């Protein structure tokens, strides 16, 4: 092979035949599935030889002995979102789970009557979807294995591929010449069946924003609009395709097939990247994936090996995508330090300058967003740990819920009002003020009380929610409904009678840590996630990249300032972190959506959306954003 000059252009370099970094050899039969671990160093593969093996990408060597267990050939592998658990589907119709060190979790799931060819973990990690040659899809609770949705009769003959959407609300399935998109909570068919595919659909994968769906079938990789099912593009190959994968770091689609050839495609221009690269023995390729950091690409197939490539060697002209998820990492403006224990809650005051925070150390503190300094001394009440805070619609009063079952009210200068509400039988974990200011809803021990604000008289309740702990409460903008989030469910209640209006709605997460209403009351947002993110609520697409605590500790609460300028979160590092919203998502333009509250109250200012404790979702009036935060 000729040597390229040192100053070779990207185009010249791209024409050079790439060389694989490693071939992982050890399986005795073909490899149909594998997964990159989150450390970007290790790969775990499953084979028709009935074993799982772990490999080191730096050394090219196996790690430890093969993982063996009854169940026959392994057809599918998927890694949990937290990177700690691997689920595998076998030819006997079972699903097993393993930790990443090769220890099998005892419970083996049965339920399918034929081969389990595909698995997908929900983004929250709460559920696993499985697709089988019996033509059904099962959605299970990830810890217990309990079937919560299904069996969904796909009418697709066999289900070769299933994939959760990035938001977890939909599941795509590929089968016998068709693609279907299902509601992951109900199993209802949303889109499809999408037809006119010549052969079976071997692989489906979502775009990062969930707006598109990619498929591998016959000799084409196809791109569909995920909401309408409309075919947008076809990427033609000269061989039958078996698997596709999207890079998490670049606008790149990888395709492999039965001829042993792999292709990379630019997902924006829909043109090839670099030249095709292939197996030396031309044997079938059956699976392909990128590492989490986008550095590596690997494939496996009928040569019984995993072949590892450095993506830049295949397509040196590649640049980091400019998609919202990969924009420049923002830097916080301030960190407010002073609390001695975890911060579970805080509120922005209506001057857009000050924040009041509550902590497990039993105190509240007031902070200045312009200076980053503490204002005055800590506020100390009569109770213990503070779990939730809420600001009155007129901006003059703060209510706080404590672990001793009491609710206190304070003015914004730190003076506590005499009347302390007691009598709760458990921790008060959530509070929400009605839009008029006349009532406060409180959540404790699976129950809700609605009190008259001035007297503290209970006017509605206790409402028995059957939700375990009520982690979050939110009055609707019109005040006629109260949403509650708790143990895997969301409920919507009539605020005047306490009657259940909607639900229980099943959520993907283990706990629904926060709920918040859209400004017009038509939409309810919930949170069970691992990162902090900004989302465009109209396009349902991410804005900027996820951002997180430097030390990886839990985030517990979040809110926007009323003018939309600041975003703040707090958590287990005992600090409040202040961000400039424009630093996180510089592409934002200020908008002023119309709220029905203005029509009813004739007020120029709208009440601030509630800032619930622990995991939180918060809306900003000026930018029409939603923030999802969680365990970082």
UniProtKB/TrEMBL annotation:
Q: Give the range the annotation lists for the signal sequence.
A: none
- TM ranges are none
Q: Spans of the WD repeats?
A: 24-65, 109-150, 278-309, 336-377, 379-411, 548-579
Q: Which InterPro entries match?
A: WD40/YVTN_repeat-like_dom_sf (IPR015943), WD40_repeat_dom_sf (IPR036322), WD40_rpt (IPR001680)
Keyword annotations for this protein, in alphabetical order, are:
Repeat, WD repeat
Which GO terms of the cellular component aspect does the record hold? transferase complex
Q: What is the top-level taxon of the source organism?
A: Eukaryota
> Pfam families under this entry?
WD40
Where are the stretches annotated Disordered? 1-23
| Keyword Mitochondrion set for record | no
Q: Which PANTHER family match?
A: WD REPEAT DOMAIN 5B, WD40 REPEAT PROTEIN
Query: What's the name of the protein?
Result: WD40 repeat-like protein
Q: Which organism is it from?
A: Rhizopogon vinicolor AM-OR11-026
């Amino acid at each position: 092979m000729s040597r390229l000059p040192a100053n070779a252009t990207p185009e010249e370099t791209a024409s050079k035949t790439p060389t694989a970094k490693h071939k992982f050899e050890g399986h005795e039969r073909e490899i149909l599935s594998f997964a990159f671990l989150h450390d970007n160093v290790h790969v775990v593969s499953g084979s028709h030889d009935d074993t799982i093996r772990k490999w080191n990408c730096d050394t090219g060597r196996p790690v430890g002995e093969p993982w063996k267990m009854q169940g026959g050939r392994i057809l599918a592998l998927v890694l949990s979102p937290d990177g700690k658990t691997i689920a595998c589907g076998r030819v006997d119709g079972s699903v097993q789970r393993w930790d990443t060190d090769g220890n099998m979790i005892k419970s083996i799931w049965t339920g399918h009557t034929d081969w389990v060819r595909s698995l997908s973990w929900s983004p929250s990690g709460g559920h696993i979807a499985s697709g089988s040659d019996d033509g059904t899809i099962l959605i299970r609770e990830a810890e217990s294995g309990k079937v919560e949705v299904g069996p969904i009769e796909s009418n697709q003959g066999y289900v070769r591929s299933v994939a959760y959407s990035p938001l977890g609300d939909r599941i795509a399935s590929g089968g016998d010449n068709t693609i279907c998109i299902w509601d992951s909570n109900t199993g209802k068919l949303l889109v499809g069946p999408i037809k006119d595919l010549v052969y079976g659909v071997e692989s489906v994968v979502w775009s990062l924003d969930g707006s598109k769906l990619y498929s591998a079938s016959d000799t084409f990789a196809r791109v569909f609009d995920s909401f309408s099912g409309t075919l947008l593009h076809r990427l033609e190959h000269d061989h039958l395709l078996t698997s596709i994968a999207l890079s998490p770091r670049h606008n790149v689609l990888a395709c492999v097939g039965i001829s042993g050839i792999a292709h990379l495609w630019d997902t924006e221009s829909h043109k090839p990247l670099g030249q095709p690269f292939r197996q030396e023995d031309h044997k079938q390729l059956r699976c392909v994936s990128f590492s989490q950091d986008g550095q590596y690409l690997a494939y496996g197939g009928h040569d019984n090996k995993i072949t590892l490539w450095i993506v830049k060697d295949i397509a040196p002209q590649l640049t980091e995508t400019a998609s919202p998820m990969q924009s420049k990492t923002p830097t916080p403006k301030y960190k407010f330090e002073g609390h001695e224990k975890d911060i579970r809650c805080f509120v922005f005051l209506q001057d857009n300058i000050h924040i009041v925070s509550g902590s497990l150390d039993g105190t509240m503190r007031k902070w200045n967003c312009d200076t980053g300094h503490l204002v005055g001394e800590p506020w100390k009440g009569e109770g213990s740990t503070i779990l939730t805070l809420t600001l009155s619609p007129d901006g003059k009063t703060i209510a706080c819920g404590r672990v001793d079952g009491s609710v206190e009210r304070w003015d914004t200068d730190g003076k506590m009002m005499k009347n302390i509400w007691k009598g709760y039988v458990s921790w008060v974990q959530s509070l929400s003020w009605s839009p008029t200011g006349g009532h406060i809803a409180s959540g404790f021990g699976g129950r809700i009380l609605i009190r008259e604000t001035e007297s503290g008289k209970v006017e509605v309740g206790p409402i028995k929610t059957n939700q375990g702990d009520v982690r979050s409460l939110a009055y609707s903008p019109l005040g006629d409904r109260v949403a509650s989030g708790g143990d895997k469910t969301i409920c919507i209640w009539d605020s005047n009678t306490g009657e259940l209006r909607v639900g229980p709605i099943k959520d993907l997460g283990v706990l629904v840590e926060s709920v918040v209403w859209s400004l017009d009351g038509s939409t309810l947002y919930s949170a069970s996630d691992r990162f902090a993110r900004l989302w465009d609520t109209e396009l349902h697409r991410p804005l900027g990249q996820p951002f997180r605590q430097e030390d990886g500790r839990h985030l517990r609460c979040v809110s926007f300032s009323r003018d939309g300028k600041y975003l703040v979160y707090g958590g287990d590092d005992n600090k409040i972190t202040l961000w400039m919203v424009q630093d996180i998502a510089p592409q934002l333009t200020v908008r002023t959506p119309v709220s029905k509250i203005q029509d009813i109250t004739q007020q120029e200012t709208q009440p601030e959306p509630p800032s619930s404790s622990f995991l939180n979702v918060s809306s900003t009036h000026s930018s029409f954003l939603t923030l999802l935060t969680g365990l970082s």
